[in-house]
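ok, trying the design again with the full structure, not the truncated one.
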């Protein structure tokens, strides 16, 4: 099964098939976060839809991180 991981630091998306611990090659974040979006749905999206999804994902997860600290 192919899974999507998103870097919580820079938003880079990586697809993997076997790994559960995924490092970001773009910004060197040690642990990327698995996305709940299915791979097949992601590849069917347009480039703009993908960017919007990642931007929304980052917005939500950064706010959750801020709430947990405050």
């Amino acid at each position: 099964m192919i899974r999507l991981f998103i870097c919580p630091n820079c938003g880079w998306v990586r697809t993997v098939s076997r790994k559960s611990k995924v490092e970001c090659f773009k910004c060197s974040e040690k642990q990327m976060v698995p996305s709940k979006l299915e791979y097949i749905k992601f590849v069917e999206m347009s480039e703009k839809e993908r960017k919007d999804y990642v931007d929304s994902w980052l917005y939500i997860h950064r706010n959750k991180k801020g709430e947990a600290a405050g």
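Keeping the full-length input from now on. Residues 3 and 16 are 6 Å apart (CA to CA).
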